[in-house]
Each structure stands twice: as structure tokens, then as C-alpha cells.
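Hi,

I'm pasting everything inline rather than attaching a file, because the server keeps stripping attachments. The sequence lines come first, and each chain or strand is labelled.
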Amino acid sequence: MSDPTTPAQPVPPSSVVLVSGGSRGLGLAIVTDLLESGLKVAAFARTVTPELAKLAGAHPERAHVGPVDVTDLAAAQAFVRAAEERLGPIDGVVNNAAVGQDSLHVHTATTDIARIIETNLTAPLQLTRLAIRRMLAQGRRGRIVNITSICAQRGFPGLVAYSATKGGMDAATRSLARELGGRVLVNAVAPGFFASEMSAVLGQTQLDQIVRRTPTGHLTEPVEVVPVVRLLLRDQTNINGQVIVVDGAASI
Amino acid sequence: MKELSRAQIRDLMGEVLKNQGKALPADDAADLREVGFRSLDFSELALRVEDATGEELNFDAPGLRRIATVGDVLDFLVELQRQ
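And the predicted assembly:
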């Protein structure tokens, strides 16, 4: 079935946003920013950290948090239903939950490769499917933001499976944007390496090299990524199916 | 599980270097940069140990970054076999 191209109505700003992996790091920063911006936020993570619990306690009417492993689809479904009962229909999703990698491909256990793919690729595709089905079934519009990585576009040792999943999500972003015909805006934000991760994922030599090659002279901080996520969820733009890199031009 | 001794791993390390026209110093304190033993050489050595023992040796990268000498390589692989 082919669709005629008709001007779609603008997708309204998201008002109830589901955030996966919202308990720490960038996810926690996104949850914090959205709540401070007046949105309602449903956030889950494998463990609800004291920071996330405190945040939810400060916004009891607008926050719904819980412990959910993103790979547990049934638990995610139950969480979404409970969140919508409390906050209203979800019209925004931030796929942030992911596991990292720090091992050369030849020395990465096959079970670890499967776990990385399940968490970083299969689970966000399932969660997105779940959210979109609910949006479409209720005749709503919405916005999806996938948090990917510069690893999807540039090569780094020790991150083969991780990079593959992030590249997969970048590709899914483009196809979903096409598939959803402007009714749901789908974009990705690809941060460069965060300072907090660098010492763990890359060695000091690589860290120094990346900083030297970054025109802005510093590694990306979560606070620099959050406004881009908010823009994609809230602002009236025609950005759709794009991957926005936030890395200070380190990769160009 | 068959386990290689430190001396056996040292022999394999010598073979890895010999294939590249390099020599393995007798001194365990020898610096890997001076020897010319790079991270992929370490991978090759680990895979040779795997072949010999029949067991996969999987490990994260941070451990590798602490390895600076021939002795560090041998200690790491001996320890890894026991995990």
C-alpha cells in the first residue's frame, strides 16, 4: 500500500515522556531536565538509584519511576501501563538504557555479545514498538529520541558489539521516521565520549588524543546533550529521521 | 581443564615474537614497547593459549592497559587461566 504525500499536522510537543535507563548519568540528567521543564516523566532502570528516587519524590505528581530491566518486555509493558494510568498517555520516548563494552571483540564472550545486542538493540526496538502501538491505537502523535553514540559512525577499539548496536539504532531511526509518516517524529542523539566514561572505556592516551582533536577542547558532558534531547521532544522543528552528533566536532 | 605453565606461555610468547622477526628477552622486566609486543600480539598469544588449553579466555580491556612488561603478560595469562 503506497501512501500519498500529504502535509501532516505538526507533531505537538511531548508532555508525558518515557525514559529508559533513567537512574544515572545521561539518563538521570534527561529525567531531571524534563521534570524541571514541567513535563511528566516515567523513568525506569534496572535499579532505582537514590538520586532518581529523590527526584521522583520532589515531583510526586509528575514522576513515575520503577525498577525494570529493559530486556524484560513484560515488565516494561506493565510499567508503561502503570505510568499511563498515573500520568496520562505517553507521547514521548527516550531510549537511553544501554550497556557498555570494554573488551576486544576476539576476547568478548559470546554471551556478552548477545547481552549487549539484547539490551542495546532488541530491547529499545521492542520498547519503541510498544510505545508506538499505544500512540497509534489511541490516535495520538508522538516523538521518539534514541540515544546512540559516536561509536555508530566512527571506529573505536574495544567497542565492536556496542558500536554495532548503536549503528543499528541509527539505522532504525531513519527507517522508523519514514515508516511513521510524520505522525511520530523519530530522531537520534549521538554523544561523543563522556568524560566520566573515558577512563573506563578508553585509555589515557586515547583520551588525550580525542581531547586534542576536539575543536571545543573538551569531552562531552551530559548537560550538553540534554538540551538537544529536549529540543527534539518539545520544539516545533522539521527534524525527523536524523542523528544529531554532540561531540564538539571531534569526529569531523 | 589443561593449564599452561608460566614457562609454556613464555615459549608461546617467544613464538609470537619470532614470527615477526623479534626476540623475547630473558628478563621478565623487559618493557613491551621496547620488545615491540603490541596489543594485537597479546591477543594472538591469548588465542594460542586458548588453542592449547581448549578453553576460551575472555577478558575486559582495562586489565590489558596495566600490562607493561613481559612478566605482566605472563602473570596476566597465568591468572586468567585460573579464573
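The longest helix of chain B spans residues 39-53.

If the labels don't parse on your end, tell me and I'll reformat.
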